[in-house]
Amino acid sequence: MSARKHTALPKARTLIEALPWLTRHHGKTVVIKFGGNAMIDDELKAAFAQDVVFLRHAGLRPVVVHGGGPQISAQLDRLGLASEFKAGLRVTTPEAMDVVRMVLAGQVQRELVGLLNQHGALAVGLTGEDAHLMSAVKRYADVDGERVDIGRVGEVAAIDTGVVRTLLDDGRIPVISSIARSAVEGDGSGVFNVNADTAAAALAAALRAETLMVLTDVEGLYEDWPHSDEVISRLTATELEKLLPDLASGMVPKMEGCLFAVRNGVNTARVIDGRVQHSILLEIFTDEGIGTMVVPDEDMDEGADEAEPEVHVAAAEDANGAGGPGIGTPAEPAEGAAA
Description:
alpha/beta; two-stranded antiparallel ribbon; 23% strand; disordered C terminus
């Protein structure tokens, strides 16, 4: 009997450690950008689904936003369509846009919805087209100072959270593909390929989420990369803004998304290592946490307006290969990052 008690004690301690975090986050909305290795490794995908379902049953309101660059490139190859890039951005022709739409909404999203729904009737798949959830305007590339047409690549112009709030109120888990309707009336082609990091940040701001979580393939934001692998665990919006010009190009769009989020009503934004199983639970429900957390400056936090912000967002480089400058500030696209 005493041996059984001793064996179970660490589990009890883990639950007790999670208690203040459960209390703090109960009823709060959490927007999670699903990407990186977590999207392509079966064990990581299964662990991700378990984490999201745990959040839902723990009283949080999770929303998942995803891209799918590697899957899009693979399908284009199978169909004999070239993947062309300009200034690091995928040229999204009407034919390529059909593939983007098919892969994101018909493959990546359906797989994730299926994994989540193994645990109950919880997940509902959407794209930014549904119920005017996400509207976008055409994005151009900058090649040697010239504006270049790259097809159906969009910048998020507006978010309508109605359908997402309805699903959350019904206890569902929205799973959103980063495709947007055109914000321009009479645009016959209708849809845009949108950066998933940017879409997640814009949605988190529009929902006034408690936190934005961005899964990556690194441990977090490094303090002095490549000279040190020490991760910055916490920094303010102003501190992050000062660091942005010196960040590795692959981290710029993600950190710009975090900066946008915390300056537009989101309490915290976190970049976490999606290669670690159950990284979401480790970040939210343990004292140590993992990854890097960005918080608003104190004066901004205290003076935040309760009204939903109007969202105007510029697209950034992402797994869909739809990138460009990040949210609010110009930046060079990551080298080789477009899918």
